[in-house]
Amino acid sequence: MKFFLNPGHGGADPGSVSNGLKEKDITLLVSMRIRDILLNEYENIEIKMSRTDDRTVSLKETTDMANAWGADFFLSIHVNAGGGKGGFESFIYHKIPAKDLKETERVQQLIHAEVMKLIGGIDRGPKKKDLHVCRETEAIAVLTEMAFIDVANDAARLKDPRFLENVARGHANGVALAFGLKKKTALQKTPILGESKAAIEQMIAFVKEENPQFDEEIAKAFLEVGRLYGIRGDIAFCQSIHETGWFKFEGGTAVTPDQHNYCGLGVTKKGVKGAAFSSIREGVTAQIQHLYAYATKADLPTGEKIVDPRFHLVTRGIAPAWEDLNGRWAVPGTTYGQSILALHDKLLKFPIPIRKEEENKFLDVTFIVNGNPIPAHYMGIPTKGYIQDGRAYIPIRPFAELVGLKVAYEPKDHSISLNGRKLKTKTILETEKRSTGYCQVKEIADLFKYKLAWDQSTKTVTVVTT
Ligand SMILES: [Zn+2]
Fold first, then answer.
1. Which fold would CATH assign to domain 200-349?
2. Cα of 90 to ligand 1 centre, how many Å?
3. Closest by alpha carbon to 175, among 70, 31, 79?
4. Residues 6+ apart with CB under 8 A from 392
5. In 10 A of CB 441, how many CB atoms?
6. Residue 32's CB: how many other CB atoms inside 10 A?
7. Residue 190 CB contacts under 8 Å (≥ 6 apart), including other chains
8. Active-site residue, from 145, 201, 243, 323
């Protein structure tokens, strides 16, 4: 819906002036608020305004602008003058062609009623009149006069921000109702509970770029303890980056690295040392527990003991999302959670470094299946397993033969199935002019419930099928 909004008067034309008020200021204030309400709270609405500051725009310029834009609805906001008892009234053009009259009246009446509902007072009713903006606009056009600037009682209301808010909201409600606008669903917050998304290598590299002395064990603890409590360890890690300044503990904090306090627990004011913990793991656990207290009313995971000295000070479950920590974890604060989440966004975009052992793309690996090694050659083709990007790949055919699974190759999509189950991580290696199918051993183990074991020193994967 294209909504053209016209704050009456402006610039060289102040409109009516009385009781220390200028019409042009009030119409702008109310119109900006109508715009914000509709844009913030409703979907599928486009708004163009004839002015958004104090400038002169003629009536003709205004209606030309609306017509050129192809507005669906035109609303002009005014303040009345001329004495009397005061009150609210609205106008449409007095000679609307019959085919458009019903629809225009419907829109006028809805907006009129919604404004009256919120402001109360004298209702001067919906009216018709020969007004330029209503006559010259091709779209449905309504003009409203919110109150009388020269009537003492109305002037007092015009000076009250609550009245102006009601005027704006009344108009917005009316427009939404008349044009069937859909309310936006509540803004999605980010829950504290959940699984981490960042990779450990990513977390370490992210901090090391700012702080080369960073202890990697801290990052590992965040992922491990986070997983144990069902809390986003990667975001809690970002909270610590925020609290400790990339784990440098600089910038005037009294907390020192040996306290293993990564979130200022017990630092009630600047210069206070705060709580101290015996190890990285305990410090991280205290922070995760504090988040847990905020996020849920559930009991601690089995076997866990409270190490957070401030756990009992939290109203359990009061802040399930990171954004809910604003003004709670950080007082005062309106953007604490958002700052943490912004850091987390940066973290997720940070390139994941390749670990040294993965730099050799095709690291050889030996597979032992139920005590038997997979032969290095199968029907004359080399069939050595390999590791790529940290994942072990097993040659499909010799493995299937060893464990008695049926292999099927589908030429149409080049897929390979084991006992009728299509392999997702299959890759084909071209070796010596012949090709061999490989698959991540993890996928096969998951599919057929096999047990896997990895021996780092001999680079051996053991597969047990029974
Ligand atoms: Zn006016």
1. Lysozyme (1.10.530)
2. 12
3. 31
4. 365, 367, 385, 386, 440, 441, 442, 454, 461
5. 23
6. 16
7. 232, 235, 321, 322, 323, 337, 341
8. 145
- 133 Cα–ligand 1 center, Å: 11
Ligand 1 center from residue 164 Cα (angstroms): 16
Q: Which residues have CB under 8 Å from 188's CB, separation 6+? A: none
Read off the tokens for 347: 């973290």
Structure token pair of residue 308: 């957070």
Measured CA to CA, the distance from residue 8 to residue 16 in angstroms comes to 10
> How many residues comprise the chain?
466
Residue 23 alpha carbon to ligand 1 centre in Å? 7
Helix/strand/coil for 10 = strand
Q: Which architecture does CATH list for 2-178?
A: 3-Layer(aba) Sandwich (3.40)
pLDDT digits (tens, 9 = 90+) for 92-136: 999 999 999 999 999 999 999 999 999 999 999 999 999 999 999
Q: Which helix (H) or strand (E) holds 220?
A: helix 216-229
The four Cα atoms 154, 158, 160, 165 give a dihedral, to 10 degrees, of 120
142-180 per-position pLDDT tens digit: 999 999 999 999 999 999 989 999 999 999 999 999 999
CA 265 centroid distance within chain = 27
Q: Is 430 a catalytic residue?
A: no
Distance 462 CA to ligand 1 centre (A): 85
Q: Among candidates 352, 314, 322, 316, which has minimal Cα distance to 339?
A: 322
Sign of the dihedral defined by the CA atoms of residues 86, 90, 93, 98, in that order: negative
- Per-domain residue ranges of the chain: 2-178, 200-349, 356-464
DSSP-assigned letter for residue 422: E
- Give the Å distance between the CA of 45 and the centre of ligand 1: 26
Residues 215, 179 contacting (CB under 8 angstroms) = no
